[in-house]
Request: fold
Amino acid sequence: MIEVRNLTKRFGEHLAVDHLSFTVETGQIYGFLGPNGAGKSTTMNMMTGYLGATSGQVVIDGHDILEEPEEAKSRIGFLPELPPLYTDMTVLEYLKFAAEIKKIPRDKRWDAIEDAMERTALLDVAERVIKNLSKGYRQRVGLAQALLGMPPVIILDEPMVGLDPKQIIEIRDLIKSLGKEHTVILSSHILTEIRAVCDHILIISHGKLVASGTAESLSSQARHSSTLRLTLKETPDAVEEMLKEDGEMEQVELKAGEEEGTTELTLASRREEDIRERAFYFFARHQCPILAMNQEKVSLEELFLELTGEEESHAGRI
Reply:
């Protein structure tokens, strides 16, 4: 459906998007995840033709966004971070105006507007002036504008920014429903939003794609797919001596336990495996009792920090 090939954007000396390449398949909800300033909005603006690329190519359903802009744009509904609303208009007036701009045929225009309002739950506020609506309803008006004409691709840039918890849940449910009939691309720097609605996640950092996959598959791309936390009935010095014999289990943390004569140890495997059994037999061989054992999978949050380098930059701000 969408192919992004070596997309690059420079603003003077600043490289905002750095040779970005990925493919978006039909019928899924994709999440663009990255810290503020990662290049998400710039990429989306180039994908929709709002911003020209320095180099590279965006192909929408076989149509190059620069060489065939009308054909490509007709297949996209776009909601920017700041919805392009004329707030002195009523909802209905604005959608009529947007339908005309999109060149929806006159005989199909009312059906397209009514369908967009129904899908975004705006029929009850159709005659309300936009500036008198809540932030959540304004976001719905922006979404209705993006849906006009039923484009196969819906691109949403930070659609939940500034919303209260109730409004976020409403917009999440709406996006999930859109995913049943459209290919949806959603950008955010908030992990919970992406995880709640997306089938596939693209993590961007400093204008580069650093990871791509489902939430589950991305966890396996981390340096450690899981960690094993142990409480051992032995001193830290003795445990450290034992570990020198084993070259496979990587020591993440070793410290004295809360109880006297115990050690709190965190291990990670260098291979994608469950190391609980090996750890059990290893310490049994050394006659070192295991008082507690707990395995933890790497979370999407930990992966995000690892891949984007946010952990180090955050630590530097403390």
In short: The mean pLDDT is 86.
